[in-house]
Amino acid sequence: HVWFSGWFLIPEGTDASKVFLWDLETTQLRNSPGRRLFLQDGESVASDLGKWWGGKAFRQPQNAEVKFPKDRWVQLKVHLLLSEGNDGLMQVWQDGKKILDATGKTLPRAGTIYDRMQVGVTANARANRTQTVYVDDVVISNRPI
Fold first, then answer.
1. CA–CA distances in Å: residue 48 to residues 5, 39, 61
2. For 34-60, b where at least 16 C-beta lie within 10 A, e where not — what string?
3. Its pTM surpasses 0.70
């Protein structure tokens, strides 16, 4: 199990779609794949497996997406049950409300060790766009936070 909590603030007026906020990665494999959180088009939180390896993206239920607020601090909390199979688990809470509850692959391969965490603007899928994200009170644990 992996637990993460962090507080994020995105200033008003920022186009935050396609901004990656949190990556849990392995340096054992080429391009450091791993589970990550990003703001999809429409600026709601989603997760993908990152970089080059297969598996499904985790998205909020269609027509029930909770948009990521701007110009105020927002807490994101993540729980991962690590697995290279379909029995992995990812749960995400935004300001105490569960917005993702998905099962599927959460590790690229059996025996993978996640040894790097990135927080903030970890990637920006839209070139030539300036983005600002403030981060505070980051916690990672193997026990519930």
1. 18, 11, 15
2. bbbbbbbeebbbbbbbbbebebeebbb
3. yes
